[in-house]
Specification:
The chain has 351 residues and is an alpha/beta fold. The chain has 11 helices and 12 strands. Bound molecules: 1,4-dihydronicotinamide adenine dinucleotide (NAI).
Length: 351
C-alpha cells in the first residue's frame, strides 16, 4: 500500500558539511513518520585510504541492490588526484538523467519570483567522458562523444517528465550551429522523440541564447533538456536565479537506480561548524519520497520547509539569518503537520 511500506535506502553522508546536512535531513524524515531503514555507506575523501577510492565498488553494489540512495556532497580534487566520485557513481550506475527542479521559494531572496522550471541534463556522455590527452607540450585535446542512444533516452526522459507533470513547454538546448555533427545528432534525436509527444510545444534554442533568455526572464521556461556540459553550467545558472545552490535539490536517475543529492559541494569553509543549510538535501529527499510513492510525506516536508523559510526567522547564515543547522532543523520539524491516517472507508448502505 502506498505510503505504508518500509523502505530500505542507501545513505551516503559524504564530505565536509555532508554529514551535517545528512543528519538534519534524516531527522526531518524520521519526524515525518516515513518508515525508512537507512543503509549507511562509506564514500568520500575520508575513506580514500581505507578503500583506495572515494567511491568503492562495495558502495556501488549496495546502491545497485537497493535502487535508491540519498547522497551528500563528495569533494573532488581539482586538476589532479583521483577521479570524481560523483562521475564514477553516475557512470557505474548509468544514472543518465540529472534532474534539477528550480523553483522560487518564499522568503528566499532572489532576482525573480515565480520561477518554476526543471533542467534535465544528460549525465554520462559528452565532454565528460574524460578522454583527454596532451597532444604535445602546449596542446591538449578533449574528446566529445555522444551517441544516438544517449541523446534519445535523455530527450525521451525529459519529454516524459513534462507529460507526467502536465507541462507543455520544452526547450531543447544545443550548439548545433557550431558542433554540427555531435549537437546535430542531439537535435535530430530530440526531433524524432518529439513526434511521440504531439501535445508538447518544443522550442530549440542555442545554448548561449538560452543563457541570455533565462537571465532575462526565466518564468517563460518549464522543462529544459540538454547535454552534459551545457547542463552542468545552465543548471547552476538556473539555481542562481532562485537563491543559489543551497536551496536547490537534484536527482540522478537511471533505469535501475536513482540517487538524490543536493547540488552544492562540501563547503569546506563552513564544514564542522554547524552552520550549513540542509534545505537542498532535504528538498532532494522530498524528490526521493515522491520517487518511492511517499507523496503525502513529501508534501508535508516541503510545506514545513517553505513555511520556515517564508517566516525568515530561523534561517541559516547563507540566507541572511543566524540559525544553526540544528535550530533550522528543529524549526522545520516543529512545522511538520502530523501524517494523515488512511481514511476509513464509509460503511456501505444496505440495500
Ligand atoms: P560549494 O558548493 O561546496 O561551496 C560554495 C559556497 O557555497 C561556499 O561558500 C559554501 O560555504 C556555500 N555553501 C554550499 N552549500 C551550502 C549549504 N548547504 N549551506 C550553506 N552554505 C553552503 O562549492 P565548492 O567550494 O566549489 O566545492 C567544494 C567541494 O565540493 C569541491 O571538492 C567540489 O568538487 C565538491 N562538490 C561536490 C559536489 C557533489 O558531490 N555533488 C557538487 C559540487 C561540488
Amino acid at each position: 500500500m502506498k505510503g505504508m511500506a518500509k523502505h530500505n535506502i542507501a545513505l551516503l553522508p559524504g564530505d565536509g558539511i555532508g554529514p551535517e546536512v545528512a543528519a538534519a535531513t534524516e531527522r526531518i524524515l524520521e519526524a515525518s513518520g516515513v518508515d525508512i531503514e537507512w543503509s549507511r555507506l562509506e564514500a568520500g575523501g575520508e575513506f580514500m585510504a581505507k578503500y583506495g577510492s572515494p567511491m568503492p565498488d562495495s558502495v556501488l553494489t549496495e546502491i545497485r541492490h537497493l535502487g535508491v540512495a540519498l547522497k551528500g556532497p563528495i569533494a573532488t580534487p581539482v586538476a589532479s588526484g583521483f577521479a570524481s566520485a560523483n562521475v564514477t557513481l553516475r557512470k557505474a550506475l548509468d544514472l543518465y538523467a540529472a534532474v534539477r527542479p528550480v523553483k522560487s521559494l518564499p522568503g528566499v531572496e532572489s532576482r525573480y519570483d515565480h520561477v518554476n522550471l526543471t533542467v534535465i541534463r544528460e549525465n554520462t556522455e559528452d565532454l565528460y567522458s574524460g578522454i583527454e590527452h596532451l597532444v604535445q607540450p602546449g596542446i591538449a585535446e578533449s574528446i566529445k562523444i555522444v551517441t544516438e542512444r544517449g541523446c534519445t533516452r535523455i530527450c525521451r526522459f525529459g519529454m516524459e517528465l513534462a507529460r507526467r507533470q502536465g507541462l507543455t513547454k520544452v526547450a531543447v538546448i544545443h550548439k548545433a550551429n557550431i558542433m554540427k555533427i555531435t549537437d546535430g545528432l542531439f537535435l535530430e534525436c530530440a526531433r524524432r522523440v518529439a513526434r511521440d509527444f504531439p501535445e508538447l510545444e518544443i522550442q530549440e534554442i542555442i545554448v548561449d541564447n538560452a543563457c541570455m533568455q533565462l537571465v532575462k526572464d526565466p518564468t517563460r521556461y518549464e522543462v529544459l533538456i540538454m547535454g552534459n556540459l551545457y547542463g552542468d553550467i545552465v543548471s547552476d545558472l538556473c539555481s542562481g536565479l532562485v537563491g543559489g545552490l543551497g536551496v536547490v535539490p537534484g536527482a540522478n536517475i537511471g533505469d535501475s537506480a536513482a540517487v538524490f543529492e543536493a547540488v552544492h559541494g562540501s563547503a569546506p569553509d563552513i564544514a564542522g561548524k554547524g552552520l550549513a543549510n540542509p534545505t537542498a538535501l532535504t528538498m532532494s529527499a522530498v524528490m526521493m519520497l515522491q520517487h518511492i510513492d511517499e507523496d503525502e510525506a513529501a508534501t508535508r516536508i516541503q510545506n514545513a520547509l517553505e513555511s520556515v523559510l517564508a517566516e525568515g526567522v530561523t534561517i541559516t547564515g547563507d540566507l541572511g539569518g543566524s540559525a544553526s543547522t540544528n535550530q533550522f532543523t528543529d524549526a522545520v520539524i516543529a512545522k511538520l503537520q502530523p501524517a494523515r491516517t488512511p481514511a476509513t472507508k464509509p460503511a456501505r448502505r444496505k440495500k
